[in-house]
């Protein structure tokens, strides 16, 4: 892997523009309009990225960039892969790369463009940035929907930098929301709070896509997202020390907030509600820890990276990164001949394609994939001739190769979360956040696969070469 060919968010936007998928919009309202336009655009076939400027009530140049990586092409570009790869080929390339990635610790530098503008103390006003009200029933505007939250473990010095949403409550007050107590940020903050201290924290708004992807990855405790982003980039992330927090901050970032996350014993604020990636609200307002913002820094004409959760199938990433993880897990568990993996409906449905080798092969893959599928209820196993990224093909396999009375199993009490809309609020409140999963074996039955009716369809390779050869004639009007 040669790494990425962008340095910062602006470099990425320039590459997106070269691909022809950038749209510039002026005059939109941060209250619901930016969010609405973003959701509509994400549902269009070409799925353009959007750069909003001249936002109503804000100075020209204070911009919001959305749908950065929602298309498979731009998700590939963000990883430094060829955006012309087919989605399934891009995911396969990423799966292989990810297994061999070498962590690259960040590199300390002295200069950062975000020191072009600084405000501290009583001058701090987070309200100067056009934080969108993303969905109309959200509890308020969110400056952080695609922002990194940076903290240092007080015992080991490990820097955690992952994505948690950040709601604006006042000129120097924002909240940070942890989905559950196992989040690294929650674990680190608690260590400070237990000593009766506030936790130094920085919010990185407008990170580049390598940081955005790293912030979503499940990394082990002690591993910094900065090192993983460096591995994606093929060179270290450059960081400068925040003058107020001492925390390392990506030098290419657009807008930085530095401050303290206050002990919840002292203060909390009602956070949310916030539309989730399931397409629903998961809860009403809940108390969340408060960050007192002590300093803010921003580049001239700053760009806020916005990544609101939207109704599926729209998702932050146009390549299902979690499916690459499951694919690697299957291989690591000794399941051979996995030829593809994908997730549909914003990671709520997992599909694995295998070249069947023995009786029980498909179910072996299905059980592991089910165990590793967060929140989803559907796991489908298909034969190697079916493209798992093509939902129509997957449904064809289900409707022609699966006999429900024989080929479907249900596993109970499996991994979900408090965001799951199909678990009662009463259950969620008492921590009963498991669901069940249906494993659909949509492969030809192994024992009589040789007698299974032959398909009349073109193979994926045949279809591809015909499309290459006859593309011009087929597109003529
Ligand atoms: C756009 C986006 C928004 C997210 N928002 C939240 C959030 O508000 N709270 C949360 O706990 N996790 C959120 N996540 C998921 C975490 O970032 C993800 O699970 C990450 O791996 C957690 O990192 P950690 O292991 O360092 O805690 C979000 C992910 C993305 C991509
Ligand atoms: Mn982490």
Question: How would you describe what is shown here?
Answer:
This protein is 27% helix and 25% strand. Helix 4 (87-100) crosses helix 8. The relative contact order is 0.12. The chain folds into 2 domains: 9-306, Electron Transport, Fmn-binding Protein, Chain A (Pnp Oxidase, Chain A, Roll); 321-450, 3-Layer(aba) Sandwich (UbiD C-terminal domain-like). By secondary structure, it is of the alpha+beta class. Manganese (II) ion binds next to strand 8.
Question: Which labels suit this protein?
Answer:
13 helices, Pnp Oxidase, Chain A, 2 domains, binds manganese (II) ion, single chain, UbiD C-terminal domain-like, 477 residues, 10-stranded antiparallel sheet, alpha+beta, globular
Q: Helix content range of the residues, please?
A: 25-40%
Query: What is the 3D form?
Result: globular
The parts where pLDDT drops under 50 for at least 5 residues are none
What small molecules does the structure contain? flavin mononucleotide, manganese (II) ion
């Amino acid at each position: 892997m040669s790494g990425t060919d962008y340095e910062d968010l602006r470099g990425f936007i320039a590459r997106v523009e070269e691909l022809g998928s950038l749209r510039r919009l002026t005059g939109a309202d941060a209250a619901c309009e930016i969010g609405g336009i973003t959701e509509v655009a994400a549902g269009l076939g070409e799925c353009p990225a959007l750069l909003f400027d001249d936002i109503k009530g804000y100075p020209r140049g204070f911009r919001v960039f959305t749908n950065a990586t929602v298309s498979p092409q731009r998700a590939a570009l963000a990883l430094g892969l060829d955006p012309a790869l087919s989605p399934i080929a891009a995911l396969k390339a990423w799966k292989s790369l990810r297994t061999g990635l070498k962590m690259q610790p960040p590199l300390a530098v002295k200069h950062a463009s975000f020191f072009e503008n600084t405000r501290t103390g009583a001058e701090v006003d987070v309200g100067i940035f056009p934080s969108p009200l993303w969905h109309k029933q959200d509890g308020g505007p969110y400056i952080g929907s695609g922002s990194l939250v940076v903290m240092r473990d007080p015992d080991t010095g490990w820097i955690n930098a992952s994505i948690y949403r950040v709601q604006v409550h006042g000129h120097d007050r924002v909240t940070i929301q942890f989905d559950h107590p196992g989040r690294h940020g929650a674990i680190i903050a608690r260590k400070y709070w237990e000593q009766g201290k506030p936790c130094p924290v920085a919010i990185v708004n407008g990170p580049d896509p390598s940081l955005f992807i790293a912030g979503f990855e499940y990394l082990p405790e002690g591993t910094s997202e900065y090192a993983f982003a460096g591995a994606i980039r093929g060179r270290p992330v450059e960081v400068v020390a925040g003058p107020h927090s001492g925390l390392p901050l990506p030098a290419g970032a657009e807008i930085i907030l530095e401050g303290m996350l206050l002990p919840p014993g002292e203060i909390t604020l009602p956070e949310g509600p916030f539309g989730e990636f399931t397409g629903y609200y998961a809860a009403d307002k809940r108390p969340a820890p408060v960050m007192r913002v002590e300093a803010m820094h921003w580049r001239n004409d700053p760009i806020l990276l916005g990544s609101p959760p939207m109704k599926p199938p729209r998702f932050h990433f146009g390549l299902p990164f979690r499916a690459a993880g499951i694919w690697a897990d299957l291989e690591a568990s000794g399941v051979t001949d996995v030829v593809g993996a994908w997730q549909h409906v914003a990671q709520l449905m997992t599909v694995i394609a295998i070249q069947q080798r023995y009786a029980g092969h498909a179910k072996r893959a299905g059980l592991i994939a089910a165990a590793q599928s967060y929140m989803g209820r559907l796991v489908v196993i298909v034969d190697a001739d079916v493209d798992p990224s093509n939902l129509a093909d997957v449904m064809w396999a289900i409707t022609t190769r699966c006999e429900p009375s024989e080929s479907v199993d249900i596993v109970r009490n499996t991994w979900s979360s408090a965001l799951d809309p199909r678990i009662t609020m009463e259950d969620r409140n008492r921590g009963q956040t498991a669901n069940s999963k249906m494993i659909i074996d949509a492969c030809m039955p192994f024992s009589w696969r040789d007698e299974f009716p032959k398909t009349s369809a073109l193979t994926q390779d045949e279809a591809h070469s015909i499309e290459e050869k006859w593309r011009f004639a087929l597109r003529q009007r």
